[in-house]
Amino acid sequence: MAHFKTTRGNSISYTVQGKGLPVLLLHGFGEDHTIFNQLAESIHQNASLIIPDIPGSGASELIDPTQPGIDHLASDFWELVASLSVTAPIVIIGHSMGGYIGLAMAEQKPSAIKALGLFHSTAYADSAEKVEARTKSIAFIQEHGPALFLKQTTPNLFSVGFTQNNASFITGFVEENSNFSSEALVYYYNSMINRPNRTAILKSADYPILMIIGKHDKAVPYIDGLEQSYLAKETHVLILENTAHMGMFEEPQKVTNFVKTFLQNIEIQG
User: Fold this and answer.
1) Which pTM does this prediction carry?
2) Are 238 and 255 in contact (CB under 8 A)?
């Protein structure tokens, strides 16, 4: 992986794959860039994929966890994009927290967006109940550590059926993503708690919006996704009937086909 140092001092590790339409893929909380491996394998022939680890995840270093903010992370990634001399408007597809960052990037530089994808993500701010849940999670992480927290919570991101039929996969996924620091996870939670409602971004978008919604998603409720799918002028929606929050694993072929077609349509439209 290549490395880029931001003006805030964060070191972002990333890969660039393929040629064509520039597409930034942003992973979510408790993950790293590898969640996009299968998707990237399918679409890299028709797109220039920029796939980073968010600061504090994977091989990317989070320098100052005392100043949480989705907007800060968004600025970091605009710096990364600029460093790669990407001049054309870009497509951003973010999974969960990655979608929050994508929305902030769109707010910061709307003219630099070719399309925006919310992959099990939402433009809503946290509800009072969500803030309470995240606050309790922060307390648990600080008392028991990140590894135990992720071990207990990660299976809940998958549908019951997938969990029952893929126990070894989930165990391996948890083990592969067990190296987070408490500081990074707390930073992410505080960043998400403090982010504003960004439905205005969807309402004002003069570019296509992609939405992937899991019917059984507990992290981003199905109804929230449906409500937001009507906000933009042009929204392409995939509803995954057998999926919770991890469609790239639960129904990978449907996700791959949908994203691939979405990107092809963008290129045809010019």
Assistant:
1) 0.97
2) yes
Residues in Cβ contact with 220 at an 8 Å cutoff, skipping those fewer than 6 apart? 96, 120, 121, 122, 213, 214, 245
* Residue 10 structure tokens: 């964060």
Whole-number pLDDT of residue 270: 60
How many alpha carbons fall within 13 Å on the CB side of residue 255? 28
In whole angstroms, what is the distance from residue 259 CA to residue 242 CA? 18
In SS3 terms, 199-241 reads as HHHHHHCCCCEEEEEECCCCCCCHHHHHHHCCCCCCEEEEEEC
User: Which of 5, 43, 3 is CA-nearest to residue 24?
Assistant: 43
Ordered domains of the chain (ranges, CATH): 2-269 (3.40.50.1820)
Q: Please answer whether residues 121 and 96 qualify as being in contact, where contact means their C-beta atoms are separated by less than 8 angstroms.
A: yes
Q: What is the pLDDT of residues 33-54, one digit of tens each?
A: 999 999 999 999 889 999 999 9
Q: How far apart are CA 193 and CA 96, in angstroms?
A: 13
**What residues are paired with 14 via a beta bridge?**
2, 52
In the chain, the amino acid numbered 56 is: G
pLDDT lower than 70: segments of the chain: 268-270
pLDDT tens-digit profile of 201-215? 999 999 999 999 999
State the pLDDT at residue 45: 87
- 145: Cβ–Cβ under 8 A, 6 or more apart, which residues? 182
What DSSP designation does 125 have? P
Structure tokens at 9: 């001092």
Q: What is the structure's pLDDT at 269?
A: 65
Q: Which two tokens stand for residue 239?
A: 């509803």
Beta strands 11-17 and 47-52 are antiparallel
